[in-house]
Hints:
Layout: E1 4-8, E2 17-19, E3 27-28, E4 66-75, E5 81-87, E6 90-95, E7 98-103, H1 115-118, E8 123-125, E9 137-138, E10 147-152, E11 155-160, H2 174-187, E12 192-196, H3 202-209, E13 213-218, H4 221-233, E14 241-245, H5 248-258, E15 264-267, E16 272-274, E17 280-282, H6 283-296, E18 304-309, H7 316-326, E19 333-342, E20 349-359
Parallel strand pairs: 4-19, 7-8, 12-13, 12-15, 13-14, 15-18
Antiparallel strand pairs: 1-2, 3-14, 5-6, 6-7, 8-9, 10-11, 16-17, 18-20, 19-20
Helix pairs in contact: 2-3, 5-6
Amino acid sequence: MKSFRDKRRDNRPPAKGRTEHARPQPETVPIRPEARQQRHETKPDDRSDPKPAPRILARREGILPTERLPVILEVAPNQDYALLDSGAGEKLEQYGPYRIVRPEGQAIWQKALPARDWDRADAIFTGDTDEEGIGRWRLPKVPLGETWPMKHDGIDYLGRFTSFRHVGVFPEQASHWDHMASLIAAANRPVKVLNLFGYTGLASLVAARAGAEVTHVDASKKAVGWARENQEMAGLGSKPIRWIVDDAVKFAEREERRGSRYDIILFDPPAYGRGPKGEVWQLFEDLPGLTDLCRAILTPKPVAIVLTAYSIRASFFAIHALMRDTFAGMGGTVESGELIIREQSAGRALSTSLFSRWVA
């Protein structure tokens, strides 16, 4: 289950940056007729499927994967995105032509740039009204539309002023995207990628551009619709991407029963989520089962699994140990650490999330 990603980094329950929302019934977003030959459409699942028994976890036998830690994956300022400055609980960012001010709880230091640089912002998140979307943003210069064009490494996509301070992309994830693209290219064979909790689809687009067949899953119909808009805007409409609106855990459970398997799995679960029937997702309680499930739906010759965790009070050592235990007996390497964004003004590192990835 998943709460909408828009509250992903708020650090306040029910908050990883997202709004609680009822989990929609499983469905596949329709695809364009001209793309049907290149993408296999998944039919809505039969809701009469038997409910699976609770997953029983036991520590796996076998040699643990080798380890590499701590690993700090850094995003530096570039022409598409830059963290210009941060401090006093805020961050000043540049997304293409737009300068944006948003809250940032981890920026407990003082701002390095003078007030005049911050005052040049095109949009400032206030969150001080009851309105949704752009109503929670102040636009000091000229009115901006709710959506606006952005770019990542040559991929065009839509930014959007959401009601929970996010704009549709998490720039620190670029380190994972680049790594994944290199793994896909190096495989020299068809690669199937599963992107759970896929949000607005940048990781899915990067994987598809690199040559992978991608399945993108998110519980939010709004997020998946936004992701499909991004696919068209990026000119990648012919790439083989299945867009699935479903609960990530239930989808993965069905894939296990169906015998569907993937070479690379990305999963980026929330810290907290609630389903329409009162089901509760708690990261510390439910992550071990989901991680085990991800192992179960790997192909016989897997490439990698990437886990990212936002807004949790834990060390990366916790998810590092979980990943090593889960992949015991499979060889490879587990590398864990933090994703950071390097500030342009004073060179400080803004930590955004923890991660752990297993690479075969």
